[in-house]
Amino acid sequence: MFDLAFIWAGLIAFAVLAYVLFDGFDLGVGILFPLMKGKDSESGRDEMMNSVAPVWDGNETWLILGGGGLMAAFPLAYAVVLPALYAPMTAMLLGLIFRGVAFEFRWRTARGKFLWDWAFAGGSILAAFAQGIALGALVQGIAVSGRGYAGGWWDWLTWFSLLTGLALVVGYALLGATWLIMKTGGAVQNFAYRLAWITGIATLALIGLVSLITPFLNPIYMTRWFAWPAILYSAPVPLLVAAAALVLFLGLYRRRELSPFLAALVLFVLSYIGLGISFYPYMVPPSITIWSAAAPDASLAFLLVGAVVLIPLILAYTAFAYWVFRGKVDMKAGYH
Fold it and tell me: Is residue 12 a part of any domain in this protein?
């Protein structure tokens, strides 16, 4: 009665998108951390960190859900992707560990505070760059033989994966800048407005560049984007990207606080939709489809019962946390 493999592919896709949107802006804050200069840099960095301190760890719940769900619901995809991407995935986890520890230790020392500043910034940059490299390697395609990975140790490291790594770092920086515009004031907000212009222009340029290159990486992608009638549902995506970019820059020009952040999120959602158009129905391009990678239906049905309970709970406590900590950062009631 139900296509359980398709449902689970949708749930995994939703979890990954939620992670990118939620954790993207707090990684972006860390990426921008070293750029805060001047006489107010110390207090400015405190304010930047406090803006994400109440929510950053909850944001990473979606990463656990996506990775755990992939292993349980699509074990073949997990068994192929993980060996192909061991190095960037390990780098990502190390980056997340360093920035997580920095949240706690930075407030406990004066002499070594600069070290934890760099741990927070370096961990954020490393995690974002590794995620982008992994994405680029997946888009290029993973060599599969039978039911296992057939490539080499360094297949993930290409000029295209480095480009997507850079693109994700810049994109997360845009999310971080627009988040700071919404959550802070004074010197930090002015700093964020300046950086939002730069990262916004760079993000759009990189989206355009990656989008132009991707169809030439695989004939399947070319067909998905330009063949008839696929072009009917792919053509609106770049038009909507242009509309979101207009909202972003108008918001920055008019010194709006909410619309730039929402527009930046929409840019990521549209980019994700574009990726889905290219990938479907493959779980691991260019050979493993959603259905060939899926666990047996009995397992998927059993897992779905837990997901039906768990995902609404995660959404509920996430919404509650953001509601409790809505508004501007109050430095008198800071994280430390």
Answer: no
Which residues does 262 contact at the CB level (< 8 Å), separation at least 6?
A: 247
| Residue 276 one-letter amino acid | G
One DSSP character per residue, 278-326 reads HHTTEEETTTEEHHHHPPPHHHHHHHHHHHHHHHHHHHHHHHHHHHHT-
In this prediction the pTM is 0.93
- Count of domains in the chain? 1
Classify residue 227 by its DSSP letter.
S
User: Which H helix or E strand runs over 229?
Assistant: none
- Please give the residue range of the domain that contains residue 180: 41-328
- pLDDT tens for each residue of the chain, 336 residues long: 678 999 999 999 999 999 999 999 999 999 999 998 876 788 888 899 999 988 888 888 899 899 999 999 999 999 999 999 999 999 999 999 999 899 888 888 778 888 898 999 999 999 999 999 999 999 998 988 888 888 888 999 999 999 999 999 999 999 999 999 999 988 899 999 999 999 999 999 999 999 999 988 888 888 777 777 767 777 888 999 999 999 999 999 999 999 999 999 999 999 999 888 888 888 888 888 999 999 999 999 999 999 999 999 999 999 998 998 888 887 666 544
Other residues' Cβ atoms within 10 Å of the Cβ of residue 203: 25
Tally of CB atoms within 10 A around 288: 19
What is the C-alpha to C-alpha distance for residues 336 and 313, in angstroms, rounded to an integer?
28
In sequence order, what are the beta bridge partners of 145?
148
Confirm whether 20 is domain-assigned: no
d(CA 258, CA 176): 13
